[in-house]
Input
Amino acid sequence: MKLTDKLIKAVDKKLERFDPLWQAENGVGGLRSRYYDKTGVAKYREWRGVKDTFYDYTQWLYNLMSMGQMVASAPVKCLRGFWEYRWMGSYLGTFMFIDRLFEGYRGYELRIAHMNMHAIVQSLTKKIALVLANDRRFGGGPLTDRMVPMDEVLPPLFMAGFKDLIPIPLQTLPEFIICDIDQHIEPYYIDVAESYGLPADVCSRCAAETGVTIDDAFPIIGKAFLSTNMPCNASESTSMFQRRRVNLPYQPVTMAMIHNEPGAHPYSTQELKNAIAFIEKEYGVKYDWNALFERAKQMNEQNTIELEKWDFFKTPYSALVGIAETLYRLYSWASVNGQEDYFTKNDRKVIAIMRKAYEEKYKPFSGKTRHRAFLWGPSAVYYTDFPTWIQNCWGINIVLNMDSTMGHNMISTTDPEQAIKDLALFSEKAVMRHHAVGGWDNVNAVWEWARNFNCDMVLCNDNVACKGMNGVHALLEEQARDLGFHFIFIEHDLEDSRTVSRQDMRKCVNNYMSVVLGEQPLDPTIVEFDDSAAY
Amino acid sequence: MKKALKFVLKLLGKLSLAGLIAFVVTFAIYMTNAENKIIYYVVRPLLNKHYDSQVRDRRI
Amino acid sequence: MKDLKHLIYFENLLQDAQNELVTKAVAEGKHALGYNCYYIPETLLNLPGCFSSRLRAPRCVSTDIASYYMTTRNCPYVRSILERAIEGGYNYLEALFGAESCAAMERMEEHFVLIHPVKNDKFFSTIIDPPMKGDENNLNYYKAQLKLKVVDKLRDELGVDVSEEAMLKAIEDHNEISRLITEMGDLRKLENPPITGYEFHVIQLVSQVCPHYLIKPYLEETLEELKTREPEPKFPFRARVALVGSEIDDPDFTKLIESCGAMVVADRYCFGSFPSREQIEILPGESAFDAICRHYLQWNQCARFMDGDKIDQRHNEVRKLVENFRADGVIYENMKFCEFWSYEKVLANHIFTNELHIPCCTIEKEYALGAAGQLRTRFQAFIESLEIKSIQGGK
Output
């Protein structure tokens, strides 16, 4: 052992009483001990041992630099953005968000988690700066007319054939991503929509989107707008409002809802072709298949690596776990979709670490995992760190979730006709709808996924306003019973933390684990706590 | 030669000192969670006050 | 007004899904084909040897078992239909043709296969993926879905004749029923109509839930009766309204509005005559099947349509109804937990009130007529506002 290692080990030993994991193990505290009540504000940052704390600190610096770069790239417009848009203020909660996502992470899993997170931060900050710098509300910019506002659930890869245009998922910045960061932001927009008569029982995500629309809180960019029917009924309806308020030439790209049938794909393929023709007409540009192929190669490589990651997920030795997997896959697939090289490079580095960790038979979370769970159904956006909590509290490792199984078919990089067909199939398997929509077989696939990934447990997100998933409630429970899986419905209201709070969600798990399975928590300080005032 | 070496050493010394101070300051901010406390208790309440007073062009 | 000769008979036919005419047709060897939504063309289910049965769950008081399957947080219409199926109320059906017109509907229709509630050995079910736009690609997809999941299934599973001649005959049947209903419905355009909204609602419903060939003689007779029926000496209502919304299959709901003082002069909802009773025309070079598909896509005004033309169409059609039937205002209904109509009523309320300056009232209701007191208060207030407006000369 090298001298520095010995020194670090000695310091770690000396300071171990500050490590919340050690505190929980020794009954003298835990992960919640360092928080001010309710707020989610920590008195001090988590002590993870010398190496991991220092690594966490460097990643904090990297993320800080990305944010600095964002502001520096368009200082006036970024500040105006903060002043104009309520949702921009919520981005200030990013550091707190990252801290709570990776609580209890150590070693390889911490490294990978931060690599993935930084990929998101650097991409998102650039995107925010780009959008604000070209927002017509602030006088526009050189790229305003080259931007294409699109519904965030429409995978933007097919737009790569317009090499001079920039697809911007319209709802991502003011609604989807920001709800991950701040649980209090979307209720404001939901209230705006409800003040116009929208009932409270519709999907809160779409209610929030509608509220953003009514509140005039979308950036103003582009020359034409692509909406979509995905993922479900309510999001179809929100388009009616966006059509009026965005007030640009508008084309809904309606992909087949019952998508696992042969007849569906020719229809969806034609929809994509029509969308391309619409953009060609509105922007006066020609589609370049070679440009598409270039980006498709990136997406294919990312998906190839993703499939290799799945092989590791099936073992107890995967260094990529929980929310580090979920959030990254969601962002890199749904938002980036092969369009940024950084993500391919990041994937190459991550898979290298995963291979190494596997060879070393490295078990994440110090091998404290008791159950392996597959997470099914659309997750609560306001409780992104739920997978982290469930691991730290009950030792339940979420090895994969429904949305991570999104389109992983390869796209042809030589034949335009085949490529567009591949893209149709790829796009039909988009976020929140691949398994949640289009028939019982898609939902019922969960057991096979769970079995393939060696899970003994299925956690089913129970969005109280999701009519489609509500419609198979009993069938899922009966299947779980028949097939012998531990099964927990976790009630939530997607983007409205007032209806079902984070603590209510935790309660669903606590009850099952303590009453049905009779297990003891790993960390008693996080079984029940109030984080209602936290971001 | 000796003068140049002295200058370089002095510069390196200054840079190291600056680096050390930067490290101490940023690490102190990091460990005490200072930036989040300021954002949570000072910046966001002020921003929220501003957002609440905005007159927005609300319509369908 | 003098009571309509067959009104009580019609009302009785609406008390059960399997009413006496349905039972008679089944006994005569006709194939009973169920459906829930306008996306499934009624015409295709009335090919020779078949009859359509639009599913209702009359007198449904509890949805306990269906709520176990679909939770209480789901559309009460679909839960009521599933409950009725589990109770054995649809055992006469040989098929259910479903449409993924909304997620709740699709899930409910799936239960017809997954938990086998219909105790009929011949029973089968399919679900189409219905279009969301009115363009050519969507029309082609609609045709392909209907062919694959309705027409071919009828031919292969039940041996139904699906030839061009058979399709033409089905169109003829559709047009004849539609002519009768439209003639009766048009009477509501009169200043003092010889028919109430409630009576028309009952008549329209029996035309959707009974075998056409058995109900037609009664409809013909009722039309003749209406032609000579003396209306009240003075128009007995204080206002005229168009009722717009989703699955309104309870005539008592119309009765409730009318008891508050407004005649329902136009019925633009899923079980209404707009759309459903328009004439199918066959364009030159078009097959009968193509004409049916085009007709149903063209007239469909479902709130799930996303393209600008179809969104505007559904508001324009209501505006036309208001003009043609001289309605003073519009009542927009949405079923509780209905995503599409929840949004549509917000948008429509804005368009009608602020852009078209047509008074509009929006309400949310259960499937079974609960909370009638609250609804009554809403309707009375709305009707009063219409009256005041009328007194003030439309200001």
Observations:
- Residues 29 and 35 of chain B are 7 Å apart (CA to CA).
- The two ends of chain B are 76 Å apart (CA to CA).
- Chain B has a mean pLDDT of 95.
